[in-house]
Write a structure and sequence with these properties.
alpha+beta
Length: 148
């Protein structure tokens, strides 16, 4: 499985199919998608994007003075979930953060994905909130790269 940098248009269908299924939102675009620091990563299988994530240089809300990178829009096609693709694309993004001397990687994680993040070294931070786009409970998660 090779992780590659992809154009935003290449990952949108997967984001929409996975992250907006059974939600009130019909858009999987984020305001940060066009941020100059945004990088879209993906894994293709037979030419089709089956996993994706977006990485943006952005401060971590509780600790805005620490160099940080936010993970957004992570998705794996449903029939390949729980087969390691998420961990592979997560590791690739974390390596980018380390290469850019970031101290923290963070995300707004669906509560249904908290166990995945915890297995990959992330901690849950703060109280539960409901995401406007999905109507689902979320928590902030963060990985301290200075202790990893």
């Amino acid at each position: 499985m090779e992780v590659e940098q992809l154009p935003l248009d290449d990952i949108m269908a997967l984001r929409l199919a996975v992250l907006r299924a059974d939600t009130p939102s019909s858009s999987a675009h984020y305001a940060e998608d066009t941020d100059p620091t945004a990088v879209h990563l993906g894994i293709r299988q037979d030419g089709v994007v089956v996993a994706c994530s977006t990485w943006i240089v952005r401060p971590f809300p509780p600790n805005i003075s620490t160099p940080a990178m936010q993970l957004k829009g992570m998705a794996v096609v449903q029939h390949l979930q729980s087969q390691g693709l998420g961990a592979v694309i997560l590791a690739a993004g974390i390596q980018r953060a380390i290469a850019q001397s970031k101290a923290i990687v963070w995300a707004r994680a669906r509560d249904s994905a908290i166990a995945f993040y915890q297995r990959n070294g992330f901690s849950v931070v703060g109280d539960m909130f409901v995401d406007d786009a999905t109507g689902m409970p979320h928590h902030l998660v963060m990985l301290d790269l200075t202790t990893s």
